[in-house]
Amino acid sequence: MVCKYVLRLCLLIILWIGPNCALIAQQARIDSVRNQIPLLVGKEKVDALNSLTRGVMYSTPDEAMDLSRQAVELSGKSDYEEGEVMALINQGVILNGKSLYQKAEEVLNHAKDISESIGFHRGLAYSNLSLVTICIRRNDYGRGIELSFSGIEAAKKIGNVDLEVSNLINIGSIKQSLKDYVSAETFLLDARSLAESNTRVPEMRKGQINGSLGILSAVKKDYGSALTYFQEALRIFETHNSQAQTANVLLNMGYSYAQLGEFSNANEYYDQAESIWTELKNERSLAIILKNRSELMIGAGEPRSAINFLKKALEKEVFLDDLVLSDIYSLLSRANESISKHKEALAYYRQYIGLKDSLSMRASEKNIAGMTERFEFQKMKTEKEMQLQQIEIENLKIAKSRQVILIVAVVLLMIAFWAVWNRNKLKTKLIIKEKDRLIAHQEVILQQHQFETEKEGLVAYAKGLLSSNETLEKKALELEEKLETDQRNNADVDDLVAKMQFAVNGEKDWAAFVLYFEAVYPQFFSLIEHNKKVQLTTSEQRLLALLKINLSNKEIAVLLNISSDSVIRAKYRLKQKLGFVETKEMLDFLSDLV
Length: 594
Hints:
elongated
């Protein structure tokens, strides 16, 4: 007998040591990270802060929130968007645990937007996972399933089996809420199979699976199986000191015992759950416990106690959704009816019916909105597919057109090349033939007149040279006398006038003059054409050059072998062409032009 008690005592000691050793080890890891944080900087410090936040978010949520804020601030200074995303996700989880769903959703959506913008699949997976929890609480099941499947895809991309399992659990829970129990069980069993076959999935996740399977069994009124699942989940959550999840399981166990009629066991588990939720300041869950206790009181024939519990639950109305409120009003109506307070019962029943109708209407609106959204999405998808098909057809047409154009262009190019080649070949033959004929004819003439031509040419060249020399000497003397009295000319003009002694007579002389002139004033004519947007004739170039060196109308007339009046008219036409009002403006422009 003593041996029996000793064995029991040893077993209790082992059961106590196991969880507490795990808690000690977990606390040691948290303390280790906490001690390292002051020694770290930049991204490493952000990661450490996020790790510590996850370690304490369920035990000390206020401290966890402060740590996550530090991580967000440091992420901004370190330009570490991934760290900021994980810190925001931690904040969302903490706010969700405090039933601050609106703020939690805003923070998590912000984390999701950042993750999508930088392609951070890990952040996308975790933000989706946390948003699903809020969707479930708000009965937004369509978006919850959408986010869960998106989370599974993101989890596969980063090779995180644990996240994949978590999303499968969420889908199972949503399917259960939709009363699709067969699908719910299928997803939950898939999650359990994946968790058991992979060592990287933590025990906590297996606890969640057992908890979800227990809820599913309770919904199907198989409370014996439900309690078995809940007991396994409770063992895992208590081992890992997960207070919120422990409280949820205790609440569900109390409900299961209540349905079996074991009120003392039900109250015992409700007490434990209430203690934890009070510590965590979760008003919504405390209200649910009060509602469940009222059901016990009604079942035990104590409606007045039930009414007290329900009124305390209504004090937390701000934290409750319409579904929970409708249950409370329904129970209040029943409890008041049982003690013959028909007026109060009717008032609560009307509130219950109003909420129920509102829930039904919202559910219908959501269904209609969901169907409309799916229809619009399918319509848009079909239109996009048709557009893509049309684009592909147009691209094929363009490609074929280009091929045809290319082939035609190649053929035309070959024909043009052949035509040009034949034309040049024929032209070359004709030129050669004509040259041969001219050479033959020239040879005959040269042989006949060679002596006379050479003699006459020599005489003509000598006369022309003599006449040219006399004329140039006279012009040179006149220009030298002018330059002595004209102070506007410079050394360059003097040089130019000196060089005129060699050639300013006829086309050949003008060509020589142009060479000398452009050596002194490079790009003179091209600058005028560029500035005034005109095209100069040879005569206009001659006149501009002579004006540039400040020759008078009379001198220009002698050199160009025209009258002074002709020079004046030519200057007037040139002034108009260049866009000047006064001749002085044109002369100043030419003088300043470099």
